[in-house]
Each structure stands twice: as structure tokens, then as C-alpha cells.
């Protein structure tokens, strides 16, 4: 009788292996890729996958964050610290600089800068001549993202056409693009929010503190909680409450809402995620509430 035993891979092993394969395909097929790293949980997973794909060597691409200038300090501090720990190059390009150049013009001083990240991203792609951007978007986040291929083609104007995408057969990925065109690659596209948290738990990945339960002043806006900050002060008539919350996603302060939670550890967040009935972006994003197709329209304009 054979003494060999059959090894069974867990679903996280399969997802990780697929993501490593995709990341190596990008590195192999593209000349100047870049990994988008915001300090959020999804891009933190991408960094671990990049470590497993390319260590002990350096990453074959720099890291880049498109900063609105309105991100939580806990997150940007974590971003800088993590990039330094890895010894990898971090490029930060800001919407503020696009505003100074005149390529971004706000309709009003308090308009959210989030959607204008598209302009700054396209400017950064042109500046560094990146031919591929590796991002942490997942299909389960939002229906426009569910339409994306793993390697999603953008034309010379940074535009995405959801009705004219390249076929992807099995694990054959096509990252070919002419100069000026661009590929957006999503190695964890097949992951769910639960997969991300279970991977963070398994890999013992460090996170910004705002992912865990803490008390914060908020104003209720329908089903969402608007954090009270210098950028988002309470308005006359608003009722400010001190509520135990955590963030399921991190992003621009003006459009990212926390959720009520007492989960203070990754293990508790995994349990909480297993029982929630509201999608991640549905519970946390004020900017996705404007219309049914708001994300799809922004992606057509060059958004992640």
C-alpha cells in the first residue's frame, strides 16, 4: 500500500494560488505594471500575494496610491509604514495636485474628491507609462465590478467598455495592449469579503486600526452612518451620536461610512461577516447611492 497521502487544498489555498498565477502573468506579460496600494484590506492581501509570488526578490513593480487628500490618517500612516517595512517603492499621486493643474475642477468646495481619482490615476499612468495596474477590486463588491474580467482592457483614453471585453478562457489571461492602452488586473476578483477576512486571519496580516470596533461620533443618514469629522461636520438639525463602529472598507472620508459593530478582533469580524445580509459597498459607500449605475459610469471614465 502506498504511503503517499493525497493533499487537499483549502478554498483559500486555491484562491491564493490563482492570485499568485495572475500576478505573475501580469509581471511576465507587461513591461511597466504597478500595484495599487491604498492601505485597505484588499490591497493588503495583494501585498501578501506579491510576497509569495516574488520573494525573496523585489517586487517587479512599484506600489502606487491615488490619494484624495481626504483619507483617514490611520490608513495613510499604515500605507507608508507597510511600504517601508517591505522595502518597496511607493508612489503617491494626489487629487490635490490635479486640482492645482486645473485638470480637476470641483463644482463646490465640499464636493467629494473620490470620483476625481480617475483623472489623477490616468495622469499617473501617463507620467510613468504604466501599461498595467494591479488592483484589489472583487466581483462581489458591486455589480459593475462583477462585469469585469480578471484582466480588463482600457483604451488610450482610459475608458472601459463593459460590452466589448476580451474573452477569458480557463486560466489564459490576455494582457496585451498597445502603447497608451492599459490593463487593469484584478488577482482577487474571485474572492468574497469573507475570503479576504479569512485570509487576513490565516496569514495574520496587520491592518489599520479603524477596521476594528471603536467609538466614533456619527450622524445617521438613512441606513448609513456619516462620521462627524472636520471634512464632514454635523449640519444644523443633525443628531450626533457616539456609536461603537468599525469600517468594512476604507477610503475617502467624505463618502465612506462605518457600520455599527463590537468586533475588535479579526476572528470576531469573520463571525460578523458570516451573518451580515448587507453588501460591503451597500453598507459603507455614500457615493454609490447616487444612482444604480454610478460605479459603472466612473469605471467607464477610468476609475479602478
UniProtKB/TrEMBL annotation:
Pfam entry (one): PAPS_reduct
Location of the region described as Disordered in the Swiss-Prot/TrEMBL record: 281-304
Molecular function, one GO term: sulfate adenylyltransferase (ATP) activity
Keyword ATP-binding: yes
Acetylation keyword on record: no
Positions with biased composition (Basic and acidic residues): 295-304
InterPro entries in the record: PAPS_reduct_dom, Rossmann-like_a/b/a_fold, SO4_adenylTrfase_ssu, Sulfate_adenylyltrnsfr_sub2
Enzyme class, first EC level, given as a word: transferase
Keywords noted in UniProt: ATP-binding, Nucleotide-binding, Nucleotidyltransferase, Transferase
EC number: 2.7.7.4
GO terms classed as biological process: sulfate assimilation
Residues of the Phosphoadenosine phosphosulphate reductase domain: 33-258
Family label: Belongs to the PAPS reductase family. CysD subfamily.
PANTHER family given in the database record: SULFATE ADENYLYLTRANSFERASE SUBUNIT 2
Name listed for the protein in its UniProt record: Sulfate adenylyltransferase subunit 2
Species annotation: Niveibacterium umoris
